[in-house]
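Hey Z.,

So I finally got round to the nicotinamide-adenine-dinucleotide thing we talked about over coffee. Here's the setup:
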Amino acid sequence: MPILVTGGAGYIGSHTCVELLNQGYEVIVLDNFANSNPEALTRVEEITGKTMKAYHVDLLDRESVKEVFEQNKIESVIHFAGLKAVGESVSVPLYYYQNNITGTVILCEVMQEYGVKNLVFSSSATVYGTPDKVPIKEDSKLGATNPYGRTKQMIEEILRDVAFSDPSWSISLLRYFNPIGAHQSGRIGEDPNGIPNNLMPYISQVAIGKRQQLQVFGNDYPTKDGTGVRDYIHVVDLAIGHLRALEKVQSIKGIEAYNLGTGIGYSVLEMVETFRKVSGRPIPYELTDRRSGDISTCYADPAKARDELNWQAMRGIEQMCKDSWRWQYHNPNGYNKAFSKQNIRNDRNPVRYAAGFFNV
Ligand code: NAD
Ligand code: UFG
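And the result:
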């Protein structure tokens, strides 16, 4: 029975579609392409040699979401669709609350209506805010510090209420740490709009010559070299984590949160040095002030996912940098920009098509 993947054309969603198809799942993608390109779906099909149905639908468009459930006997949902830029969420919080929270509420209402009650949700380590101690365990206190993070925290609470109200729901809340890397084919990867906010796409763009130098935000943190420390996780490991969570929600009722991280923290300068080594390109950088809202150190205790999902990250930091670089090198401009994102950005019309339709 098919798995619905909302936001399946995005960075993590596309990698998860590959793993699902490789495992023999039937996959249906729902995406409004607000932050992705349909070309990613074509490439997922190319990598796997399998096809999937894709719907150009906005989660806020309830009738179209219902149509997707009407036309397909969906068994479980992996819900990636959401907006994720921290800075943007501070400028336009209502847009974030509307898109992420209302979108999730509509999805759950439709799921309920169609008797689909297995859900894997993309949460984030950002729900922990400034952690009291590291490594972070799932029962650490939550305290998101920006509107984006609060959408994730609020959705987690909404989903807990849903599961409490009706014990036939099965929900996994996956709290990702810092996803980087790309599929080893070099055909799919992270394709940020404009100037990247995150470290890895910024480093890659410096390496390829699109940006002059990296700004390292702060070197006075209480860390090994003064720069911020994060738990970077390969996107393919993360994608595989979704398959384990899917198996879990298909077999056990209730709601659980899981950290998906490696348990290892690397500093910004360690990342720069590793990337320089694997790419053979210089990564010029300057040390600047701290970025407002950043924390010093964040890494996971991934034991719960290991014990309960039978999942562990396998790919190391060199592999993450190598795969990010292969993607960047072979796709210096990301996905085919000839198919302009602008043209479809605000198109809320429910146009349906097969993924291959956009293969220009
Ligand atoms: P992404 O932007 O690449 O993918 C999100 C997808 O959702 C995009 O294809 C976008 O077009 C789609 N989308 C957004 N709003 C939609 C709506 N209303 N209706 C239909 N489709 C919609 O992001 P990603 O990095 O793949 O992240 C996937 C999920 O994981 C997001 O929910 C994000 O918040 C969460 N997450 C990401 C990170 C990260 O660092 N990448 C970390 C923690 C959590
Ligand atoms: N950094 C730089 N220069 C840059 C970009 C980042 O020095 O140009 C530093 C940051 O200060 C931080 C580290 O690199 O120390 C990682 O920064 P990212 O922006 O890549 O990632 P964050 O940990 O700040 O946040 C990301 C996502 C959040 C998500 C969080 C945990 O942006 O949405 O990971 O999953 F919640």
